[in-house]
Write a structure and sequence with these properties.
Elements lengths: L4 H9 L5 H7 L3 E9 L1 H4 L2 E8 L4 E8 L2 E9 L8 E9 L7 E11 L4 E13 L14 E13 L2
Antiparallel strand pairs: 1-2, 1-8, 2-3, 3-4, 4-5, 5-6, 6-7, 7-8
């Protein structure tokens, strides 16, 4: 049992913020707006909103110019300003302008102040009427990426 005590202490303290972390990263920030290129489900220009359910898990939804999306996020550190992995759904286009929908996993980097970008891979779920099927076959795996800035929101 003695050999497990250090591991238990390390595990339990990793979920607590130090006083310095709280002041530096704002532990009372539970939500975050992200605005940028290919945000909001892979839209040309879009915005996402993320809400932390606890210190590590968050949910997000977004919309933009001809697209929308959603995601489930796992943060590497216990605050909203940290980088995370995200399981995402992108729906690119509406009506006759609907090109495709895809699901994938992305690494999302969040800088300490405002910069954010993401990169990952996704698989096509559906092809829409705007997909140029006569010229281009839909690949089984696609690159997913976005660039923008984020604005944390105080406790909601």
């Amino acid at each position: 049992m003695k050999q497990y005590i250090p591991a238990i202490i390390l595990f339990t303290t990793s979920f607590q913020l130090s006083a310095q972390d709280e002041s530096q990263y704002g532990s009372n920030e539970r939500g975050c707006f992200t605005i940028g290129i290919l945000q909001g489900g892979g839209s040309l220009v879009g915005a996402d909103f993320e809400y932390l359910l606890n210190t590590r898990f968050g949910v997000q939804a977004g919309v933009g110019y001809r697209g929308f999306g959603a995601g489930i996020n796992y943060h590497f550190s216990p605050y909203i300003r940290s980088s995370f992995m995200s399981l995402q759904y992108w729906h690119q286009g509406f009506g006759d302008y609907y090109a495709q929908s895809l699901a994938g996993i992305n690494y999302v980097f969040r800088g300490k102040k405002w910069l954010t970008f993401q990169i990952g891979v996704g698989a096509a779920l559906e092809e829409g009427p705007a997909w140029p099927s006569d010229k281009l076959e839909q690949p089984p795996v696609m690159l997913m990426y976005a660039l923008g800035f984020y604005l944390p929101v105080k406790k909601l």
